[in-house]
Amino acid sequence: MKIAGVEVGEQPLILAPMEDVTNPPFRKFCKRYGADWLYSEFVSADALVRSVNKSLKKLVIDEKERPVTIQIYGRFIDSMVEAAKIVEEVKPDFIDINFGCPVKRVAQKGAGAGLLRDIPLMTEMARQIVRAVKIPVTAKTRLGWDCEHIVIEDIAKRLQDVGIQALAIHGRTRSQMYTGEADWEPIGRIKNNPRIKIPILGNGDITSPQRAKEAFEKYGVDGVMIGRATIGHPWIFRQIKHYFETGEILPDLSVKEQIEIIKEQILLAVEWIDEVRGLLHMRRHMASMFKGLPHFRELRIRMLQAPSIQELWHIFDEIERKYSGEYPLLLPE
Question: Is 73 helix (H, G, I), strand (E, B) or coil?
């Protein structure tokens, strides 16, 4: 499948944008294990315009990542347009507009999912960004602000009409945050609406190969975004592709294999930031690993509290000795 001339693969598996997660080191692993299309962390438009170093660093991309999207968010059209022009200079394949972030510090200020309460402003913002840059612009949003205001069908039509090239939809409202189950029925209706011609990407609760297959077969989406299920498990993309090809569930990696991967991730994170912040950053990934190992609680606590690479490496050695790589786990149904 191509979007505005950019090849993204047939039935693409897409790494969803996640703050403090989808940085270049993590994207590298997701690409290695089969992700077809990568998204950056979201980047504040206001911070880009002010040349804040932390935000400018989020614009770093590697040629091996392509196709890759840089996502921006903000509440003001002028700063969003200016930020899009800044992003265009680093030449990602796409610029994505975040119309879906539900966290209070973003949405309550009128950015991200906050724009679900002002569809005309959302539409005009998209229109002006599309006009301001030459590379394709996509968008990511939610079903609506709350269950009484499911507005996604109107949004999809409006965004398509102003030039948005693809739309990713998270099957929750802003008020749901990440609770409850994602509702894919509205996503399917939009995909199957003859009025909608742009690719529709589905997002929400893709935690297993079976759910990814259902998203394509039952709801007909053009691509599937995977977010939280990749944390600590970047090889989920390979497991899904294996299931699509064979119908078989590929077991999780052995303990030894997981340790080798997390060590490499940690070293890249430390190189990307520094040792203290790199280890703090990787705790979220480590907390999601080694699920199901018996009598693992004490080792997990020590692993997550390790203050240095040296100590963490000793703990990994202890984990490997104790479990000997004999505990490959299956993804949940």
Answer: strand
Measure the CA–CA gap between 11 and 8, rounded to whole angstroms: 9
| pTM attached to this predicted model | 0.92
| Segment holding 161, helix H or strand E | helix 152-161
Q: How far apart are CA 69 and CA 156, in angstroms?
A: 20
Structure tokens at 315: 């703990």
Catalytic residue of the set 101, 116, 130, 236: 101
The answer to whether 310 and 290 have CB atoms below 8 angstroms apart is: no
**Token pair for residue 78?**
């002028």
Mapped onto helix, strand or coil, the DSSP state of residue 274 is coil
Beta-sheet strands, E only, within 190-319: 200-203, 223-226
CB 201 within 8 A of CB 164: no
101 flagged as catalytic: yes
Do 181 and 205 touch, CB atoms closer than 8 A? yes
Is the pLDDT reported for residue 331 higher than 50?
Answer: no
Please give the single-letter amino acid code of residue 90. Answer: V
Cα–Cα distance for residue pair 232/284, rounded to 1 Å = 8
Residues 6+ apart with CB under 8 A from 94: 3, 4, 6, 67, 68, 69, 70, 135, 136, 137, 138, 165, 166
Condensed to tens digits (0 to 9), the pLDDT of residues 262-286 reads 999 999 999 988 899 999 999 999 9
Q: Round to whole Å and give the CA distance between 88 and 93.
A: 9
DSSP conformation letters of 97-132: EEE----HHHHTTTSGGGGGG-HHHHHHHHHHHHHH
* C-alpha triplet 111, 115, 116: angle, nearest 5°: 140
Q: Which pLDDT band, with edges at 50, 70 and 90, does 26 fall under?
A: very high
Residue length of the chain: 333
Pairing of strands 2-3, 6-7: antiparallel
| pLDDT of the residue at 326 | 52
CA distance 214 to 210: 6
CB count in 10 Å sphere of residue 246:
9
List pLDDT tens digits, range 152-174. 999 999 999 999 999 999 999 99
